[in-house]
Design goal:
Blueprint lengths: L7 E4 L8 H16 L5 H6 L5 H10 L9 H20 L10 H10 L3 E4 L6 H8 L7 E2 L13 H9 L7 E5 L2 H9 L3 E5 L10 E3 L7 H10 L1
Helix pairs in contact: 1-3, 1-4
The protein binds 6-O-phosphono-beta-D-glucopyranose (BG6) and magnesium ion.
The site of magnesium ion has 10 residues, from loops.
Pfam families: Hydrolase
GO molecular function: beta-phosphoglucomutase activity
Enzyme class: isomerase
Length: about 220
C-alpha cells in the first residue's frame, strides 16, 4: 500500500479527538453504581465505541440484571446517563482536545485530505462545537441513520462514501477494538490509538495522539 494513494482520513471522536471517553466512562460509572454492577476497567473498555443502549445492556448483563428492567426503565437509565454526560460536555473547552490532534487536523487540511467523522455518539456535533473543531470536518456520519453499530463496517464505509473516496484511499483512526474491527471490515487501513496489545488488530498503533503525525504514518508505510 502506497502512502501517496491516501486521500482521506476518517476519525472516531471519543478517545481520539477529545477526552470524552473519560466523560462517557464517568457517567456510565454512576449508572453502574445505581444498578449495582461493579465498575471495572475491563467493563469500561468494553463500552468504548458501543452505542448508548448497547452500553447499558452490557452494564446490566455484567450482573445478570438485563431482565430486571423493562424497556421504559432502560430508556430512563440511558436518558439519565445522557443528561449527566451532556452536563459534563457543557464544561468542555479547547483544553479537552487530545494532545497533538489540532495540529494533525491542521496539517491534513493544509495537505488537502478529505476529513470525515465516524462516531457512534449522537452528541458528536456538540463536542466538536465545544472544542471548536467543527470546521475541519466536511462530513459527519449521522449514527441515527445507520442500521448497525461498530464493529459493523457500515459507519466507516458510509464516511468513505460521503468523502467520495474508495475505502483503499482512506485511513481510519480509532481507540476502541470495536472501532478497529469496523474500519478493517470496511477495507480501510486502520490506525489504533492506545495499547498495542489491546488494539492488536489495527494496521498501526500509536501509543497516544501526540504520535499521530503525517510523517509518522508515512514512515510506517515506507517501511513496508
Ligand atoms: C461512542 C463512545 O463514541 O459513542 C461510547 O465511545 C458511547 O462510549 C457512544 O456510548 C454513544 O454515545 P452517545 O453520546 O450517543 O450516548
Ligand atoms: Mg472512541
Amino acid at each position: 500500500m502506497e502512502f501517496e494513494n491516501i486521500k482521506g482520513v476518517i476519525f472516531d471522536l471519543d478517545g481520539v479527538i477529545s477526552n470524552t471517553s473519560r466523560l462517557h466512562s464517568d457517567a456510565w460509572h454512576q449508572v453502574a453504581d445505581k444498578v449495582g454492577t461493579e465498575w471495572t476497567e475491563s467493563l469500561s473498555n468494553k463500552l468504548k465505541g458501543v452505542s448508548r443502549m448497547e452500553s447499558l445492556e452490557l452494564i446490566l448483563q455484567a450482573s445478570s440484571l438485563e431482565s430486571h428492567y423493562n424497556d421504559q426503565q432502560k430508556q430512563e437509565l440511558a436518558h439519565d446517563k445522557n443528561k449527566d454526560y451532556l452536563r459534563r460536555v457543557e464544561n468542555m473547552t479547547k483544553n479537552d482536545i487530545l494532545p497533538g490532534i489540532e495540529s494533525f487536523l491542521e496539517s491534513l487540511k493544509q495537505n488537502h485530505y478529505g476529513l470525515a467523522l465516524a462516531s457512534a455518539s449522537k452528541n458528536s456535533a456538540r463536542v466538536l462545537e465545544k472544542t471548536g473543531l467543527s470546521h475541519y470536518f466536511s462530513e459527519i456520519v449521522d449514527p441515527t441513520k445507520l442500521s448497525k453499530g461498530k464493529p459493523d463496517p457500515e459507519i466507516f464505509a458510509t464516511a468513505a462514501k460521503l468523502l467520495r473516496l474508495a475505502p483503499e484511499k482512506c485511513l481510519g483512526i480509532e481507540d476502541a477494538v470495536m472501532g478497529i474491527r469496523s474500519i478493517n471490515a470496511a477495507n480501510i487501513f486502520s490506525i489504533g490509538i492506545g495499547d498495542k496489545n489491546i488494539l492488536n488488530e489495527a494496521g498501526i498503533v500509536f501509543e497516544n495522539t501526540e504520535l499521530l503525525t503525517l510523517s509518522n504514518i508515512r514512515s510506517h508505510f515506507d517501511k513496508k
